[in-house]
Amino acid sequence: MKVLMFGWEFPPHIAGGLGTACYGLTKGLTQHNVEVIFVMPKTFGDEDQSRIKIINASEVEFDARYWKEHLFEHQVSFIEINSQLVPYIGLDDYYHIINQLKSDVFQSAESGQKLRYQFSGRYSENLLVEVQNYALVAAELAHTQTFDIIHAHDWLTYKAGIAAQQISGKPLVVHVHATEFDRSGEHNINDIVYAMEREGMLAADAVCAVSDFTRHIIIEKYGVPEEKVFTLHNAVEFGNKEIKRTRPLKEKIVTFLGRVTFQKGPEYFVETAKKVLKYDNNVRFVMAGDGDQIQHIIEYAAESGIADKFHFTGFLQGDDIETLFGMSDVYVMPSISEPFGISPLEAMSAGVPVIISKQSGVSEILQYAIKVDFWDVDAMADAIWGILHYPALSEMFSACGKQEVHQLQWANTAARLKEIYKQLLHL
């Protein structure tokens, strides 16, 4: 069985849990004799290709005009607008993208003339244009590659998946790692993104949700028939080395790791920190990550009078995350709406007790994690204080959590996914 899979990021170059999940899932599939061709907008040369074949979309030549005309016949919609959807962009990237637009290469191309589109490989200001051109690359690959099934991860790749489906006639699986309701909240939905998500879900032959929490949103908010929506919980990738526990400071360390955005509830982390520090000044709080709310949170911590107890590390990955977990006494994920949440599993694997919001998909599968409502900062503060001041409690969550999370293998998730593939292929 061979899968043509479309993603947007892949370790070690990731912005969040999406790339981590793609890596774990593809590795798990190969353990079940499923061959994966993984397509991404831009590769950097240091991705692990020992188990899968990775195609760099920026190196694929395609006839833009031909595929646009052909896909329009199959009613694959395109949106040609520029939109500031995600704030991860620097000045160099911005001017590079603007220069591409001004070059007008696609509008001037004639049918039969093959071109390459240089994707930024990031969540740039020009994101929707990249999504569209990624679909044109997908059409070319669907025409030239041999495969049995198509798998598209998250809304950025759904148009690519639909294009490949229309060209090849092969079944399409879309994977929902987050919805617009998670990212923006109930009352701030981006209608363009919502429409693209819904288009992908309705076109798919099967929809994989990372939790029952997300499955419910897909059925209720997007109108997808429940019989084609499957829950496929994430897992965690374990390294071979034991993470070394260190104590660099006299104070205890409480950690937040994730994108600093509305969805992740960073303000509740600051609120909780204020309450803990009222009763115990021997604690430091670390916020590891970056995002559109980072400046606001820095200012909020300063206004709250706890800046001297707060550390902002910026975006971390790889060994830096392991180092942080090695010195952490508690990990907190106060997410407002979390489809799943892989970072608590990584923390538990390192032996760190975790506190997670009940509004997270990962809470469905964990027993040895303290679960509180994201808005209940009093309960969150009490949980932190308890772990920091009762060694037996901390040791229990550390040991039992580590044992529990090591049962959550990507190979098991991949086995369930393979069964979905077989069902679609009538095997």
Describe this entry's structure for a reader.
This protein has 427 residues and is of the alpha/beta class. It folds into two domains: 249 residues, Rossmann fold, CATH 3.40.50; 154 residues, Glycogen Phosphorylase B (Rossmann fold, 3-Layer(aba) Sandwich), CATH 3.40.50.2000. The strands form two sheets. The protein has a seven-stranded parallel β-sheet, sandwiched between helices. Strands 10-9-8-11-12-13 form a six-stranded parallel β-sheet, sandwiched between helices. Helix 13 links the parallel strand 11 and strand 12. The protein is globular and about 70 Å long. About 7% of the residues have low confidence.
What order do the SSEs take from the amino end to the carboxyl end, as H and E?
EHEEHHHHEHEHHEHEEHEHEHEHEEHHH
What is the name of the CATH topology of the largest domain?
A: Rossmann fold
**Poorly predicted runs of 5 or more residues:** 79-109
Give the spatial strand order of the biggest sheet.
Answer: 3-2-1-4-5-6-7
Shape verdict? globular
- Report how far apart the termini are: 10 Å
Largest sheet: 7 strands, parallel
What number of structural domains do the residues give? 2
**Estimated share of beta-strand residues:** 5-15%
- Average pLDDT number: 88
Question: What CATH architecture of the largest domain would you give?
Answer: 3-Layer(aba) Sandwich
- Radius of gyration, CA atoms, in whole angstroms: 22 Å
Q: What is the percent of helical residues?
A: 40-55%
For the record, the CATH class of the largest domain is Alpha Beta
> What is the strand tally?
13
Q: Structural class of the secondary elements?
A: alpha/beta
Q: Tell me the CATH superfamily of the largest domain.
A: Glycogen Phosphorylase B
Number of helices: 16
